[in-house]
Amino acid sequence: MPSPPHPSAPRDPTAFLCVPLQGCGEVGLGSEVKSPLLESPLCPQTGRVDKNVPLVCGHTAPVLDIAWCPHNDNVIASGSEDCTVMVWEIPDGGLVLPLREPVVTLEGHTKRVGIVAWHPTAQNVLLSAGCDNVILVWDVGTGAAVLTLGPDVHPDTIYSVDWSRDGALICTSCRDKRVRVIEPRKGTVVAEKDRPHEGTRPVHAVFVSEGKILTTGFSRMSERQVALWDTKHLDEPLSLQELDTSSGVLLPFFDPDTNIVYLCGKGDSSIRYFEITSEAPFLHYLSMFSSKESQRGMGYMPKRGLEVNKCEIARFYKLHERKCEPIAMTVPRKSDLFQEDLYPPTAGPDPALTAEEWLGGRDAGPLLISLKDGYVPPKSRELRVNRGLDSARRRATPEPSGTPSSDTVSRLEEDVRNLNAIVQKLQERLDRLEETVQAK
């Protein structure tokens, strides 16, 4: 595979060393999702996940996209071919039994849902995009679709959707070969670019620093390209680079703390990364991580989940056919002290706005936290849903009378049955171990 061209002198291309970590976990594909055990400060277990591991299995068709909530580490949203979006609450410590009942089911799409994305700063605001060419913005707290961008905005399949850092805008790429910047609360297209890349293959677009947009696509000769655009002047790109002739669509992941964008291609065995600056040539090639096996997909760890004492600036989860491999991006430093230049204040778990405030027209950037002493997860937060579907809320709310309700009794009886089953399994295991010791 040819190396990407260097439009200018690379900005210290040896400063970033990519180190694959040991440990992998199986990930279930289809309508069920397995929770992989991956090496991290919060999950020290590694290795193959047991085939009987509990699953999140509420969808009736394959799951196409998932997204962890940025404001609640226990909440995940999933979009599926069954035309629904489901929001799940994972208990502390992980699943003991299969999780079949979501906190809330969001129904509104008429075709499969391929994209889900949480609002970066407003609590309980979730976006979904389906193959019905419709984007819905949900208030998860009420379970209702509060905003709709219909087929009049996107006349064809939506390839990608990304929120701006303060959540005021979204940028989308569509099969009609247009990239749009949209104000979702007004439903208006703020800026639009026709054919940012001349090729016919899918284009992906993400917001980067200073309100710019980065796109990946293909040239007329099927060469993969990456381009940087100023949303105020979309006539010509600030930077356009051709990379190679591979056929995999490039997925961009942007880190606003370091202004580094990582490009991961489906079917590739490499990850390229570039630095974005405010001066020409704007997009600087840094380096490339390569491995022997190609990736079927890629996940990205939020900054607060990284190991700052090892100068880890990014971590990816590379999906193979039967395993998930963590890949850490580290900057070699001799000092053991906290590296402030690598870890400026980053987005924390607290939302800056409520859903009502954002819908009312307010915008706010993320609330920042320091990683100097490492990230300490807050106490488990309850996902509040005002439709009677929030079990966590029911558990936390005392009954109005001194006599527990039938629902409370049923939940307690179910918990007792689950505990009895666990005790029985442990007892059987203990008996087998005793038999083994006696046989020896």
TrEMBL record:
Gene3D superfamilies noted in UniProt: YVTN repeat-like/Quinoprotein amine dehydrogenase (2.130.10.10)
Ranges for domain Trimerisation motif: 389-440
Main location class: cytoplasm
Subcellular location: Cytoplasm
Basic and acidic residues bias spans: 382-397
GO molecular function terms listed in the Swiss-Prot or TrEMBL record: actin filament binding
Domain of life: Eukaryota
Recorded GO CC terms: cytoplasm
Pfam family, one: Trimer_CC
GO biological process, one term: actin filament organization
Region listing for Disordered, in residue ranges: 382-413
Keywords for this protein: Actin-binding, Cytoplasm, Repeat, WD repeat
Positions of WD repeats: 56-98, 106-148
Entry keyword Cytoplasm: yes
Polar residues biased stretches: 400-409
Family (UniProt): Belongs to the WD repeat coronin family.
PANTHER family given in the database record: CORONIN (PTHR10856), CORONIN-1A (PTHR10856:SF18)
Protein name: Coronin
The organism of origin for this protein: Mus spicilegus
